[in-house]
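Board notes (copied after class):
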Amino acid sequence: MRIVINRNADTPIYLQIKNRLREMIFSDVLPAGTILPPERSLAKSLEVNRSTVIKAYQELKADGLVDSHVGKGTIVLSQAKQAALPDGYINPLPWYQLFTETIAGSNDNIIGDIMAITGGDDLISFAGGIPAPSLYPVEIMREIQADLYRKTSREMFLHSPVEGHYPLRESISYLLRQRQIAASAKDTVILSGSQQGLDFAARIFIRPGDTVLVEEPTFFGAIQIFRSAGARVIGVPIDQDGLRTDVLEALLVRHRPKFIYTLPTFQNPSGVTLSLERRYQLLNLAYQYQLPVLEDDPYGELYYDSAPVPPLKALDRHGYVIYLSTFSKSLFLGLRVGWITAPPQVLAKFAHLKQMTDLHVNTPAQFLLDAFIRRGDYDNHIALLRQEYAGRRDRMLEALGKYKVPGTSWNKPLGGYYVWCRLPDNIVRHKLVANAGKRRVVFLPGEAFYPDGTQGDTHVRLNYTFVNPDQIEPGIKHFMQAVRETATDRDLENEHNIKPLV
C-alpha cells in the first residue's frame, strides 16, 4: 500500500491518509473485505503519530467506507452500486425522508387553509383575521401610485437598502410617536410582514430544545414558527387583565426561557388587553431574569372606545423589548409590509437575515406606503376603521345576545378583530364544524391557539371585520343554531349511553 504524504501541504496529514485510502477503495485497489493495516504499523511505516492514523480511520468510518471490529481490525465495506432501473422508470423522490425533523412533523396548515377560503357569495366567514375589503383605500392608492410614476421615474423600481426605504422608516417613526414610542428611523428595519419578524426572531434566538413562553391562548402562527425552530413552547394563562404575571414568575424560575412572546393589546384570539399594572410587572420580571420580550402589536391602533395603555416598548427604559408591527391589519394583507423596532444589536441580526432571505421589501410598496402616511391618508383611514369596526363589533355582540344558547358566553373587545366565545361544555368540536358548515358558516376552533393543542375545545374565535356587516346577524344566528344542534346531538348520545344500575 503506497501512501505519499506531503508534509508541507496545508491539508492535515490525517486527511491526506484518509483521502488516499478513499481513492483506493473507490478504484477497487482495496476491494470490499480488505483488512487495512493496524493503526500502529501504518503509523510506523508512514512515520506519523498513531493518533493521526486513528483519526483517518475514524473519518473513513464516518463516511461509511470501513468498519472496525474487535479482534478483526478495520475492514473495507462493500460499495455496491444500485441496480440499474428499467428503461424510462425513475424512482419517486422520498421527500418526507429528506425534510428536517421539525418540518416533517408539522402538518398544521391552518393559515393556508384560512387564506384559501373563498367559498362563494353564500359563505359567511368568521374565521380569518382579514381587514374589510370594502374599506380598502383603493382609489387613494391608485392616485398616489400614478403620482409616484410621474415623479420618481425609475427610482421606484430600483433596489432599496436592506433595512428598508429610509423615508418610510421616517414615516414609521412618526406612527410610533403616536403610540408613545420614541424611536428614530435608524431604530427600525422594514420586514415582509410581522410574520417574517417572528420567523427571524426564532432563527436568531432559538436553538433546538430552548423554551419559549407565550400567552395561553395565543396567535397560532407564532406557535408554529417557534416549534419549527425546535423550541419547547409553554403557555402562560391569561385572564380579563391579560397575561397572569404571578404564574409567569413561577415559569421563569422553572424553565429559564429564551424569551417571552406577547400580544398585550387586543390580544389574538381573546381580545383582552394587558393592564398597565401588569405591563410594569412583566417588564420588571424581564429585567430581573434578563428575559427579552417579543411584543407583537398588529391591532394597537384599532381601538373603539378609548386609546389603550401604552405598548410595552413605550414603557421599557432598558432596551429589553423587541417590537413588531405591521400594515396588514390596518390596510390589507397583500402589501406584506411590517417592521421591527429594537436595540441596534438585534436590528443588525434582523438586517443580516433580511439580506440572506429576500434582500429587501418590495420597493414600490415602500414608496406607496410612505406617501400614504405623509399625505395624512393613513391617519384618516385608521379613523374610518375605528368607526366601522366598532359598528361591526356591536352588531356581532347584539346578535350573540339575541340568539344566545345556554352555556355560551363571550367578551366585549375594546379593539382589534375578534370575539372570543365560550361554548357549552358538551360541544364536540368536529360536529360543530360540520353543523355550521351545513349552514355555510365557518369559524376558527379554539384548540389552534393553545401550545399543547389539548385545550380550547370549548372556545371559538369569531372575526367581525372581514364579513359584510349585513351578514353578521344571519351568520351568528346560523352559528348558534349549529351550537344548539350540536349540544342536542351530544345530549341524545349521552341518553343512549346510559347504563342501568346493577
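Comment from the instructor: The chain has three domains: 13-76, 110-129+380-496, 137-375. The longest strand covers residues 232-239.
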